[in-house]
Amino acid sequence: MLKKKTQAQIKYPFPFRKNIYADELKTFILQSIDSYEMISDKMKENMKKASFDKFVSYAFPDADREGLMQIASFILWGFVFDDHYQHSPAAEVLHMIQRSVEILSGGNLRNDDNDCLKKAFNFTQNVSKVAGKDWVYRFAYINKDTFDGIMKEYWYTGTSGYPPLRSYEAMREHTSAGYVFCALAEISANAVLPVALPFHPAINRLTQLACLMIGLCNDIFSVEKERNQGDNMNVILVLEHEHSYAAAEAVQVAIDQHNELLEEFLAIKNNLPDFGAQKNTVEKYIRGIEYLLEGHLNWFTDSNNKRYQ
Fold first, then answer.
1. Cβ(78)–Cβ(124) under 8 Å?
2. What per-residue confidence (pLDDT) applies to 135?
3. CB under 8 Å, gap of 24 or more: what pairs does 92-96 form?
4. Is 186 within 8 Å of 63 (Cβ atoms)?
5. Rounded to an integer, what distance in angstroms lies between the CA atom of residue 38 and that of residue 274?
6. Distance CA 156, CA 153 (A)
7. What phi-psi label fits residue 17: left (phi over 0), alpha (psi between -120 and 50 degrees) or beta?
8. Vertex 290, ends 288 and 294: CA angle to 5°?
9. 220 vs 8: CA distance, rounded Å
10. Other C-beta atoms within 10 Å of 207: how many?
11. In the chain, where the domains are located
């Protein structure tokens, strides 16, 4: 009942489309999951139930075949990293983060690098041909921020403590991987942003708003699973703890926050400054974000997605 009510209140005024290579993508992702030597058969089985192909084909509908497969490779890599190292010792996680950022920045492999790092290297080599070196360097920076958020969350994971709401929101902005997805949307939309454009106040805020909405959407639809698992890193659970809200109250607060962010997103989009020669690129990028938000929501509400159920 609560889930149906939630779905009715979170909607985007954006079109929904599926990538034309969706069927080929499904086969590619299943084969890619099997290619990870470092993860267990049980983890592979669970990942195959997550319908990652639907997320990628829904969220990045304009990507050409090569771009779509590169996007899928990295998104799968991120989920494998998160699941595999979720309960690993801090020193091991930190080492993997440092090496991942080095490799994503263009660093070479070492003899002792594991399967996960080798796949990050392959992605970087391949995506540079699609997006260019400037994008690759910015993407590495984005991932560093994401990993920094993960390490900050690490100290709360598996404990009975909750972070203050403001601290959690600051972490969640990055741990949602929204900035990673938005960067990948540049590839899908054929709108790789020139070096300085992502930092323009309007573009920067639109991207930030998208990331915040992605984080809230994720937390809202996954809260019951995370509650049952004893997790504490979810905005609903933090709201319940900090403000003594009932579950339904906390969910409603999160929904209201999400919808306020959406209103701001639309207001900025409808009042953009003149970007001159970059106008077309900006419009394609924003459209790419809209597809991302709509596709992400559809993936969460898909009954075949078992990852958050």
1. no
2. 96
3. 93/150, 93/151, 93/154, 94/151
4. no
5. 49
6. 6
7. beta
8. 120
9. 13
10. 24
11. 2-11+20-301
Residue 59 in tokens: 């969220």
CA 199 to chain centre: 20
What tokens appear for 4 in the block?
């149906």
Q: Which tokens sit at 106? A: 């263009």
CATH architecture of 2-11+20-301: Orthogonal Bundle (1.10)
| Nearest Cα to Cα of residue 255 among 189, 116, 247, 67 | 247
Sorted by sequence, the CB contacts under 8 Å of residue 252 that are 6+ apart come out as none
CA angle 172, 173, 179 (to 5 degrees): 130
242-282 tens-digit pLDDT: 999 999 999 999 999 999 999 999 999 999 999 999 999 99
User: Could you write out the DSSP letters of every residue in 165-217?
Assistant: HHHHHHHHHHHT-HHHHHHHHHHHTT-PPPTTGGGSHHHHHHHHHHHHHHHHH
Token output for 233: 């890193």
In the structure encoding, which two tokens stand for residue 180, read together? 């990673």
Query: Distance from first CA to last CA of the chain, Å, rounded?
Result: 14
Tens of pLDDT, residue by residue over 62-121, are: 999 999 999 999 999 999 999 999 888 989 999 999 999 999 999 999 999 999 999 999
Residue 81 in tokens: 């990293």
